[in-house]
Amino acid sequence: MLRLKLLVLAGLLAAPLPLLAAAPGAVQAAQGPAMPGPDSGVRHHGGPLAGLLSPQQRAAFMIQAREQTKDMSRDQKRAWRKDQFQKLASLSESDRQKLRSDMQARWDALPADRKARIEQRMAERKGADRTAH
Distances in Å between the alpha carbon of 38 and those of 5, 35, 79, 113? Predict the structure, then answer.
């Protein structure tokens, strides 16, 4: 019985492969790369802000986000977050520079002890990420 289930599962997994193989190379290329490259927009550590802001600027952004969403429901927070990331994705280069300078100013305005605690947590997380891989 187990062998039958495995055969059925294998058959289901293999079924879409002939369809993909039948598509011309130009169609496959238009659909996107099989493995995303470094410029594919896929980020694993740091999220969508990783390529836009420094770690300290990201921390300032997250502090600001927490302040703005602390009284929102879960659904409101999701909608706010989706809206924010859409705005970030559509920023012009001058707007990105302004965001970077604003977040750097927020970071610089934090008390030294709070910055030290945040940087310590970032270092701990970075170390944990390295040991996990």
Answer: 39, 10, 28, 36
- Residue 55 lies in domain: 47-132
Quickly state the pLDDT bin for 65 (edges 50, 70, 90).
Answer: very high
b/e code 17-41 from CB counts within 10 Å (16+ = b) = eeeeeeeeeeeeeeeeeeeeeeeee
Same structural domain for residues 18 and 51? Answer: no
Distance (Å, rounded) from C-alpha 129 to C-alpha 123? 10
Residue 38 located in a structural domain? no
Structurally, how many domains does the chain consist of? 2
62 in the same domain as 27: no
What pLDDT, on the 0 to 100 scale, is given for residue 19?
Answer: 47
The Cβ-side half-sphere exposure at 12, using a 13 Å CA radius, reads 6
